[in-house]
Write a structure and sequence with these properties.
The protein is an alpha+beta fold and about 425 residues long. The chain folds into 2 domains: about 290 residues, 2-enoyl-CoA Hydratase, Chain A, domain 1; about 90 residues, Pdz3 Domain, CATH 2.30.42.10. Helices cover about 35% and strands about 25% of the residues. It is built from 13 helices and 19 strands. The strands form 5 sheets. A 6-stranded mixed β-sheet has the order 10-11-12-15-16-19, sandwiched between helices. Strands 1, 13, 14, 17 and 18 form a 5-stranded antiparallel β-sheet that branches. Strand 5 and strand 6 form a beta hairpin. Helix 8 runs parallel beside helix 9 and helix 9 runs parallel beside helix 10. The chain starts with a helix and ends with a helix. The N terminus is likely disordered.
């Protein structure tokens, strides 16, 4: 039974014990009396029968039940939902790392449909969509009272077809209309670059699909001699819990990585580090922002609590609840919130997020071009000599290396520059 359940739930945010199916049945233990439960079920049956008999349109019983389940789940919280055949299939495809659509992750914030983050390199990212944008319309459809699953369904479509999102952006006075061309979304979940001068490994994780731990492990083993690692989780919307836990374990050798607590104490789980899986103890910095959510917050918050890394950037999204997928049958399922995540210190990230150690907004590094400092008395001779040098000198044009972060790249990203400086300080302290 247990192995069968792992196969069913292996692609969702977390795995749950065998008692969960029992605890979610209609006949689960409850503080309510048996008579009140039967009365409530009888009332529901009467309502369904009344709709089936009197509603203006002829609706079959299956449609009525599906609509009632959908309404129930969407009213529990912003993350619980009913997955019909299409939704269940899309969920599996998405966690495998390849799916069709725009390349954005959405959620409900204060009752409005909000973009958690665009996925790097996708059509939405290239079109200029930003984390924190509020979606007012999808084409001509208002998102008012629209569920997350309905929104996702409307945004997905055939590759190379156009969609227009009307959004509200902080600091912009009027709504913006952004045209996006749908495409097949292939996520490169992990990639690396070197900051050669400082001998620092830049490790970018764009989402937590099933390949993250293995790819990160390969990158770390390939660059064993580095002085530090920068883990970039900006605009990472999250994903699989086991991948988040596994990633932290590459850097933390003991203690709790994250725990989950729900109403049913049998579902309380503590995920602990395994010393045999830890690969490195080099100084670390983690980059986060408002688009870092869920699994990203677990990784950054856990590394922060273990004092294993300096967190740099802006406060994260604040999504700290646990959802699991419970199949109803082979084609349909429930996505239901069963618990909240807690970091090693005991704090929650739900609606709070992770506050960086160094808070700094995105932007360029303030700098001046190299000063042309010569004295007045040397001016004519100096310039003449320099002109002669230039005329004789062959200009060397270096070919850009996509695996290297250049000085120009760093000057465009003050958060990255701050992370580099943090690792320099940690390296000096470690040497001493």
């Amino acid at each position: 039974m247990k192995s069968k359940k792992l196969a069913l739930l292996g692609f969702v945010a977390t795995l749950v014990g065998s008692s969960l199916f029992v605890s979610t049945t209609l006949f689960a233990k409850s503080h309510e009396s048996e008579s009140s439960r039967l009365a409530a079920l009888a009332k529901y049956t009467r309502v369904v029968g009344t709709i089936e008999k009197y509603y203006v349109d002829d609706i079959n019983i299956t449609t009525i039940i599906n609509k009632s389940i959908d309404g129930l789940m969407s009213n529990l919280d912003a993350h619980s939902s009913f997955l019909d055949k299409k939704g269940f299939k899309n969920m599996k495809i998405q966690t495998d790392g390849e799916f069709g659509g725009l390349g954005i992750t959405v959620g409900m914030r204060k009752g409005v449909l909000t973009i958690i983050s665009p996925i790097e390199g996708t059509p939405a990212d290239k079109a200029g969509v930003k984390a924190g944008d509020i979606i007012l319309k999808i084409d001509d459809l208002s998102t008012l009272n629209m569920t997350i699953d309905e929104a996702v369904s409307h945004m997905r479509g055939k590759p190379k077809t156009k969609i227009v999102l009307t959004i509200v952006r902080e600091g912009v006075s009027k709504p913006l209309k952004i045209k996006i061309i749908r495409d097949i979304i292939k996520i490169d979940s992990v990639y690396t670059k070197m900051i050669k001068k400082e001998n620092i490994l830049y490790l970018r994780v764009t989402s937590f699909d099933k390949k993250v731990v293995q790819k990160a492990k390969e990158a770390i083993l390939k660059h064993k001699g580095v002085k530090g690692i920068i883990l970039d989780l900006r605009n990472n919307p999250g994903g699989l819990l086991n991948q988040a836990v596994g990633l932290v374990n590459l850097f933390v050798k003991d203690g709790i990585i994250v725990s989950q607590k729900g109403r049913d104490k049998n579902e309380d789980i503590k995920y602990k580090a395994d010393p045999s899986k830890t690969l490195t103890s080099v100084p670390m910095a983690v980059l986060v922002n408002g688009g870092s959510a869920s699994a990203s917050e677990i990784v950054s918050g856990s590394l922060q609590d273990h004092k294993r890394a300096i967190i740099v950037g802006k406060k994260t999204f604040g999504k700290g609840s646990v959802q699991v997928i419970l199949p109803i049958n082979k084609d349909e399922a429930l996505r239901i919130t069963i618990a909240r995540y807690y970091l090693p210190s005991g704090r929650t990230i739900q609606a709070v997020g992770v506050v960086p150690d160094v808070i700094i907004s995105a932007g360029k590094v303030p700098h001046k071009a190299d000063a042309f400092g010569i004295k007045e008395r040397e001016l004519k001779k100096h310039l003449k000599a320099e002109l002669n040098k230039v005329s004789k000198k062959k200009v060397k044009i270096e070919k850009a290396d996509k695996n290297i972060i250049t000085k120009e790249d760093i000057l465009k990203d003050i958060q990255l520059k701050t992370a580099i400086d943090a690792i320099k300080i940690l390296s000096i302290a470690k040497e001493k």
